[in-house]
């Protein structure tokens, strides 16, 4: 049996095939050895190749596809100075196409169906190894925008420094631009490119003053491998000042993770830890610099434990759905009108695990769809049960993650969920976070429009938490805006927040959109919201999220207040 050469997983492979089943099959084969991205036709493939041109190790290309076929992609790549060095393995079931593809520059071919996994891995490993060998011999490749080393060359150079220059005690720095996709969406790709150029310029200036190398490692992240500095806050500060001077009217936030030199620890491990530290600083604008420490190591171990336990948790129903009520405050007294479904994890060994611990983790690892589907099933079943038990219809909002939105079967899955539980479209409402609307916005808007056309009601969750502007509301296919709790928190004392909330409510009324205020905790907040015309509120003033038995007490109280017989 052919044994594949073991390749570091941080090699990036693009799989291009119009059939989802083929993409999934190759993903399963490759995912243990490589980072994998996907495209369903040649047009999307060329866009992804351009986006990841400095990082891409291999393209696996189907030949027969709609929109743009594989031959057209090969022709475009061979005509491009920057693309033609990327190796291509063609995927085909037609023998006659193989020779033509090889003549057009393909490095190898794999015949469909994909039934010899070891052979496929061996071919992929061999092509990547040959290609990288040629690249390293020819020149030290650099990123076109920033002038920094490409991902592959940086990785090789760092390993050689570690192996042959033990006297150099080099630290690992990972730097990321917060919500870079949103910045691009709102300010244009050229703005984003200018920010990247400035980052590269200032990093090169820093390296001119010390010993080290750097790379634009991903679209919006940078790695620096350098001699130890006494104060890395100064390094981050000089980069932030450079960006601020360029864009005084646009908030561009940087964050940095650091892992200092440890004897015998190779660059791959150092940068894994630096990146983990950088991720810990995500959204923490007060403390954008994090150094890897024991707490982070413990956190990584916990994260791995949670990832390992997820499927068992679903199978054993360790997850429990809580419900937080929403009240219409235009009624006197306020009327219970709906609820939000919120997940809780009662782990058999770890106890109650906070959603803040596992939801971002599963979102980052693409597993959040499993949790979402569990919540949908439980919520739909519960709404149906309340109808039977109380003859009382109470709509429940469930969350749609970005991974859910781009599932081609989403509409049919949700329709079947309603049918199986005897529910109407207005009894299960769909929440999408505001940040999702600025990431891959065109495709998301198309999917959301399809859901609304099918009959579902869409709620924009956490409005104001990201980079959205008020004028985005006119183009968003939504029925409800949920104002983020950070604006509600200070409306009693902060005139700006109060005016902003009032303005959002006025615009929403003009557009015929309902407004929900999240995080209402005091009577003062409630009275202000009533005065400025808010429709619905949720928050601890009325109730924390409740398990089913306690939530049913609210339903019984509501029915009793209306004088109805249970």
The counted number of beta strands is: 19
Mean of residue pLDDT values: 86
CATH architecture of the largest domain: Alpha-Beta Barrel
Output the radius of gyration: 26 Å
How many distinct helices?
Answer: 20
- Low-pLDDT residue intervals, each spanning 5 or more residues: 1-8, 136-140
Q: What is the terminal-to-terminal distance?
A: 70 Å
In one word, what is the shape? globular
Tell me the β content. 15-25%
Q: State the CATH class of the largest domain.
A: Alpha Beta
CATH superfamily of the largest domain: EAL domain
Strand numbers in spatial order across the main sheet: 11-12-14-15-16-17-18-19
Q: Helix- and strand-based class?
A: alpha/beta
Could you tell me the CATH topology label of the largest domain: TIM Barrel
SSE topology sketch:
Elements: E1 12-16, H1 20-30, E2 35-39, H2 42-51, E3 56-62, H3 70-79, E4 88-92, H4 95-103, E5 108-111, H5 117-138, H6 151-164, E6 170-177, H7 180-187, H8 189-207, E7 212-218, E8 221-227, H9 232-246, E9 254-259, H10 267-280, E10 289-291, H11 294-315, E11 319-328, E12 335-347, E13 351-353, H12 355-364, H13 368-390, E14 396-400, H14 402-405, H15 410-421, E15 428-433, H16 441-454, E16 458-463, E17 480-483, H17 485-489, H18 495-511, E18 514-517, H19 523-531, E19 536-537, H20 548-561
Helix pairs in contact: 2-3, 7-8, 8-9, 13-15
